[in-house]
Each structure stands twice: as structure tokens, then as C-alpha cells.
Write a structure and sequence with these properties.
The protein is mainly alpha-helical and 110 residues long. The chain has two domains: 2-36; 61-105, Roll (Membrane-bound Lytic Murein Transglycosylase D, Chain A), CATH 3.10.350. 46% of the residues lie in helices and 7% in strands. It has helices at residues 2-34, 39-42, 71-77, 82-88; strands at residues 61-64, 102-105. Strands 1-2 form a two-stranded antiparallel sheet.
Length: 110
């Protein structure tokens, strides 16, 4: 009777283990079918136009206008020209600078 009990116990535990293995394999097969096997499909599409190059911008420097400042004096102080300052600051009126106004300065040359 020991042999019969052993076989009954083996069947009792083997059936759930086999069922669990079958369900796991089935789930893996379904998961594999749902995933796109092509890694290129998940990647960003290749750009079609010319490649864009990122350029690191130089730190922007400003001069805070003080009483008595002129555009010519500011240009002389920073080694540039009035014309260059006017190009960098198109909204600034050279004849009417205000105290506290910010004047953009050209990037230093290296």
C-alpha cells in the first residue's frame, strides 16, 4: 500500500506543478507575440533633413546703466563699438539711456 500512496501523492503534487508550468509558458508566448521583436520600431525615426548641430552659447553679459553713462563710454569701457552695442540692443535709444537699464554686451573674444 505504500507504493499506491506514493503514486497518489506524486499525482497530487505533479498535476498543479504541470498546470503552473503550462500557464507560465503560455503567458510567455502571448507576451512575446504582443511585444514588437524589432528594436528599431521602438527607436526614434531617423531625421530626414539636415542634421542639427547644437552649439553652446556664450554667457550673456550685461552692463547696468549708471548715472552719467553714455553708449560711447560703455563701448570704450568694454572694448567694443557703439555700432556693435546698437546691433545687440536694437530697442535702446543711444540718446536716452535710463539709470538701471541693462545693456547687452558682446561675448568676449577668446
Amino acid at each position: 500500500m505504500n507504493a499506491v500512496n506514493w503514486r497518489a501523492e506524486a499525482r497530487r503534487y505533479a498535476v498543479p506543478v504541470l498546470l503552473l508550468i503550462l500557464v507560465t509558458v503560455g503567458a510567455l508566448i502571448v507576451r512575446g507575440a504582443l511585444d514588437d521583436p524589432r528594436p528599431a520600431a521602438r527607436a526614434k525615426p531617423a531625421p530626414t533633413g539636415p542634421e542639427k548641430v547644437r552649439v553652446k552659447r556664450a554667457a550673456v553679459k550685461f552692463h547696468l546703466v549708471e548715472s552719467g553713462d553714455t553708449l560711447g563710454g560703455i563701448a570704450e569701457r568694454y572694448g567694443t563699438t557703439v555700432t556693435r552695442l546698437q546691433v545687440l540692443n536694437p530697442s535702446v535709444d543711444a540718446g536716452a539711456l535710463r539709470v538701471g537699464q541693462q545693456i547687452r554686451l558682446p561675448a568676449p573674444t577668446r
